[in-house]
Amino acid sequence: MDFSSDFLMTINGQLVSATRSIDVVNPAKGLPFASAPAASAEDLDRAVAAAKAAFPAWRATPIETRRALLIQAADAIGAHADDLARLFVLEQGRPFEAAKGEILQTAYWIKATAALNLPSEVTEDTATRRIEVHHEPLGVVCAIVPWNFPVLLASWKIAPSLLTGNTLVLKPSPFTPLCTLKIGELLRDIFPPGVMNVISGGDDLGPMMTAHPGFAKISFTGSTATGKRVMESASRDLKRITLELGGNDAAIVLPDVDVDQVAEQLFFGAFFNTAQICVATKRLYIHEDIYDRLRDRLHAIAQTVTVGDGAEQGSVLGPVQNAQQYRRVLDLIDDARAKGLTLLEGKAVPEGGGYFIPITLVDNPPENSRVVVEEAFGPVLPLLRFSDIDDVVARANDTDYGLAGAVWSQDIDLAVSIAHRLETGTVWINHNLQSTPDTPLAGHKQSGFGVENGVPGLLEFTQPKAIYIPKAAAAE
Ligand code: NAD
Q1: From the CB of 221, is ligand 1 less than 6 Å away?
Q2: pTM flag (> 0.85)
């Protein structure tokens, strides 16, 4: 299989082109290097019809068989990690090793999700009756994915949908469709035709999908603004929805940390993947006793980290992924500069057409500045001074977002007590960016609706069914 060209959709087990196409831009160059099919309304209808036709047989397939096929799918992805990672670098921008890390993580995640079990319960078992609650698949799932972790986040939808007996139409972001299209091609011989369909397209395709009456469920990862549109569209026919949305995560650093030891972890907890991570630290609250030392340490790290083309040796962080996001992050930095805030810049970045922005730290901006209030989703990070725990908890919670947060301290009990006070779905103590396939990820407030991962994540793809069995009937 050629991973460098012939990007086609997978519909009903067939590779399909489209009459229109979209350009895919290499963010390190700012230039198109490939094109992907732009699905039409008819292509979408065909994909939904194929998924619908495949549903009865797939839901009747024993879960052990579905599990085994998911494991085969994971192995197929893992076996092509190098090919996929090379393509990933070109479309997403991340340096090769970290790109390959996402592909391998995807294979791991699919296997680990395949190992989960759907619970069924007995809520009553008396002399006269037995009540069983089973979890049944919903039908055809519409899966919509962003560009920051395009492959891993697709697997968070593929594995639970298919394990629970649903069929799927998956749409990658228009900015990063290529690896996902190749994965569709890789897996088309593993799953029966129609079980997993992959379609790509431009800005019109997402809204067409969420409005399509053939879907029973929408599993969406993306921005809060788009999530609200998805919810509105889903309301027309009460489609089930799971929304994993934006964040403005606070990390709180207490004065007892070893500054030299934690600085690098804090740095990459904010800037890995060029800070384009929903659960990255986006506001770093530092106790006043260590503020200056930690700020200077972070600035020193920023001056050593190479931001460059992910395809070149030595690049640690890549470009911002797309022109729209590049302009948005530059706008936030310009706003901070115009307000007279102090900006601390990292190492110089390549010039030319690529979407490169130097790592930028903002030295103790006011709490109401745009760079603090808005989700930057790019390499600019406000450092904020605090002196009092109640005050910093209130500031950390003073946002419409509630995805994740972190507390850094040698006093684990104190850190845990602060963790309980943060209004977020996840809190890390002395760590960042961890997640496991067994643990639910759920956005609080406007960071989400519903849950991904773990058994609660599986249940989002199912409908509970209670069956009341009279004992006489049960005995027959
Ligand atoms: P986005 O909302 O612009 O796009 C996400 C996806 O939705 C893309 O595939 C896009 O084509 C599609 N889309 C756009 N408009 C649509 C519409 N009206 N209806 C249906 N689909 C539509 O987000 P993005 O810029 O691709 O991703 C960055 C955002 O995603 C950030 O806010 C980030 O925090 C969030 N994110 C959240 C998580 C999480 O797990 N909570 C994970 C990764 C990213």
Answers
A1: yes
A2: yes
